[in-house]
Queue: 2 jobs
Job 1
Amino acid sequence: MSLNAAIDIGSNTLRLLIGEVKNNRIHDICYKRHITRLGTGILHTGRLHDTPIEASIGVLSEFSSLISSYQVKHVKAVATSAIREASNSDSFIHRVLTETGISIEVISGQQEAELTLKGIISSLPESVSRRYKSLLIIDMGGGSTEWIFYKNNQRLDKGSIPTGVIKLYGQCIKTDPVSKTDICNLNNEIVPHLRALAKHVARSIDKGTCLIGTAGTFTTLASIDLRLDTYKREKIHLHRLSLSTLNKMGHNLFSLSLEARKNVRGLEPGRADLIIPGLQFTIKFMEFFHFHTLIVSDYGLLEGVLLDIE
């Protein structure tokens, strides 16, 4: 068995996937994920901060050990919004290489969208492909949100929205529990981005378009809806969430304090703050583009990176 490894160094979460690829399908061998909040503070200082740097290097050292133990043939590590924007990213990349042996490739928002599409398409069953004429894929990260419009087995358009859950939280959430003013501020920040996106996709969306969400916000919403005690990829992948379900979830979560949210079943404590902007973004997105249902994909960038290894 020839094993490869993909690493996604995101603004909020670091993820590792070790697997074998056959006929454009991934056979998972090892999957790990840790929340390190690498992008925390970048909005205000433009720099990666010491605490998340140390946490991230610790996690990457663990990943490096796993890669060695599985005798992986090729490794591809990609970094997204946090590393793209931080003024001290070169120093971080150098430390990671020196201390863990992992070489990091910083990818653009456009590249991120392409790899996300590759990962998602590889995982979709034929039933989804037959039922829907087109796909609108949203990958919401900590510092940016990538989107892809896909139809007739080809990508028609793609782009990157310059906001994510860490940025939205830092800009808009000022009280605990969140106030109506906080939610209003979130909407005021989110809606202009949706209007900009509408210029690209509004005319293409119809009743035959399927909305797919990938990455931590959407998988967390699925986990909450499923009331999972531990993260289970096989249950989360392709789980459906209705707009009415998300509104009910918001009514509950928005009324809770941060500490209370940490005890919500299915919600990892490390995401108890960021789930507020993530959920509100999802609700406004579905309302704005008139989607009643969202399909959650646990496949995305990480799987696309693994498939991209030559």
Note: The chain has a mean pLDDT of 91.
Job 2
Amino acid sequence: MTQELVSLTIIMAVAAVSPIVAQLIPGRFIPQTVLLLAAGATLGPYGLGIIGVNDAVKLLSELGMAFLFLLAGYEIDPKRLAGHQGKVGLLTWGITLGLAWLVVTFLPFFTKQGINGVATVIALTTALGTLMPILKERNLEGTPIGDAIISYGTWGELGPILAMAILLSTRTGWQTMLVLGAFLAICLLCAMLPTKALRTGHRLYRFLTENANTSSQTLMRLTTFLLIFLVTISALFELDAVLGAFAAGFILRYIIPDGSKSLEMKLEGVGYGFLIPVFFVVSGAAINVRAVAGRPALLVAFIVMLMLIRAVPVYVALSLDKRKNPLSSHHRVTVALYCTTALPIIVAVTSLAVKVGTMQSDTASTLVAAGAITVFLMPLLGSITYQVADIHPVTAVREIAHTPSDWRTIVREHAQVRALLHHQDRLKRMAETLDALEAHGRGDEHRAELVERARREIDRQLKELGLDPQLTTQLPHNYRYPKN
């Protein structure tokens, strides 16, 4: 027990220091997730050996992965999944799956490396798992960019999860479908019972909501029960725990489609404050640095294949769907790069492949390391293209070429436009929140408070940028500024 506590203490020390280090890095271009993974690799069994990954730590890591996928599933709006963008996302993921199968099956390189199996195909089609904390860090949630990333990334997570359950099962085809059918029936039951109680105003439902913020924490306890119950069912059915966790988040969103800020804060507190950092550190500890260093060709090839198989189809899909998703070419590149971020599914699928003997542990370490690198590299590249797009570099270059002596003024004005556009996005999100409150008859009660809070926050952020809030009236005519 002492060794377990020592390992957990070190892990939580890393978790506490990581956001401070990330803040101190100029530009904050390294996500906290990368620091956690790097610390795990350095301090883990294959590094300095300070952190021991024993059964207790492994259990906490599994719960961390479960919370990560619970929150990922919760972010998915079922209506959006069934809508136009959701259908395009599904089609795009199907194309990536076909491309991955062709590459892994027929490219001699993968055959020579001994990884031309289904597990590698699935690993090449994944996305979203690590994106949610990164999107939150970079204030992309609720923006057109963030919505597109979630829409395309959702199938990049849900698709591989279902593929793992079907293609990596040791059962026969009909047995697999029977088990998945039983699991689906249990999920539907978990979704229907509370929804029915909510609609009828059942006494039990009133009790649960009235005690949600007391010491009973009824909704938080029920949510945790739902998560662990479905993860346990997944284990009993010999399915991956990821499927149960993702289903729990999806069910939770179905039950409370408008969300619950109070519950979300508690879930994020337990998840991002404790369990999810444990998962990332332990994932980093599973990387055999020496084995990865011995196979640099596989490391680079896997990252390149991820970009070709994931990023290119997403960019093409966005380009062909410009009427529904009117994003600039720079922003389409940003979405495609973010959707190439992969790690949790790679961890899950390689662990399963090693367990059944279809993949060597050194190969699994290399693929996990490649996934960890994408967590750093893709958001970094996406952040660069995102910032470049907003300052309109081509227009700026043309203006400077026309009047070179005014280059300082031109650069400053374009930077101000970028800041004001971000200011505009914040106001849009505030307006959407107010509209949602009014739709449920709660607008009058909260409007004044929300408006004042948002005004103070936006003014503070503009002052940090060195801008006068009155500059909002100076936006070029082709930008539409939202009304109150």
Note: The mean pLDDT is 79.
